[in-house]
Amino acid sequence: MMKSLNDKVALVTGASRGIGKGVALGLAEAGVTVYITGRTRQKDSVTNIIEGSIDETVEEIRKENGKAYSLYCDHTEDHQVKEVFNQIYQNEGKIDILVNNVWGGYESMFSPQGEYLWEKPFWEQPIEQWDLMFAAGVRAHYVASQNAAKLMIKQKTGLIVNISHWAAQKFSGNVSYGVAKAATDKLTTDMAHDLMNYNITVVSIYPGLVRTERVMKAAEFLNLSNSESPQYTGRVIASLYADPKKKKKTGQVHIALCQHRLRAL
Questions:
Q1: Catalytic: which of 35, 177, 206, 232?
Q2: CA 183, 184, 185, 190 torsion: positive or negative?
Q3: Number of domain units in the chain
Q4: pLDDT in tens, 168-197
Q5: How many CB atoms lie within 10 A of CB 186?
Q6: CB neighbours of 239 closer than 8 A, spacing ≥ 6?
Q7: Structural domain harbouring 123
Q8: Does the global pTM surpass 0.85?
Q9: Domain membership flag for residue 3
Q10: Which residues pair with 205 in a beta bridge?
Q11: In the annotation, is 177 catalytic?
Q12: Residue 24: which CATH number?
């Protein structure tokens, strides 16, 4: 049985909904104090097709007696990101786990006329899709990791997880998405190289088919027999942190397996 992580502190970026919310829930189950960021503060401010807010995520965690706090943050604004880390350090004096989940580009899945664009050839895609994926995705992961690394180096311990996807390895219907996820994996390997002497582990994790709000809206068209709960990836990350041999996994890309384990690609 995995040991309790009651004395650990994590930041999960982009946790209003989807995999980020699930990761926050899974870490809180293990006793981790979880800070979450997002741009949707309250339920009343939701303008997305898919509902969810950082305050609702915190409320759900607290209903299960977990410890969680929400911090508004637009991860394309560096000063807001720095303030998030300052706030966590002021409150907790450390950060043990960073999960880079925030992402951009999904806003461009449909045209203003409602046409589905995601699997169109790249020359028919809006250019802003590329910009959003790199600004609110890859660059956002880089900036958050810089801030986390400065604190973790002082501690001489830590775990940074980049949520990535199979699109980094094979074509998955969208060129911008594949290139951005490949960049995410390269970010993982190179950050791990720089941090190897500080007892800080950096990994990319590929979740499977997760029963997020977006997936469940399309459930009638999908085979969910081998799907994962939203909390599953968070449980995997908690197990990884508790693994005394986790440093051997640094710099690698992993897929989540049953029983909350990882397998390197």
A1: 177
A2: positive
A3: 1
A4: 999 988 999 999 999 999 999 999 999 999
A5: 13
A6: 2, 260, 261
A7: 9-264
A8: yes
A9: no
A10: 163, 254
A11: yes
A12: 3.40.50.720
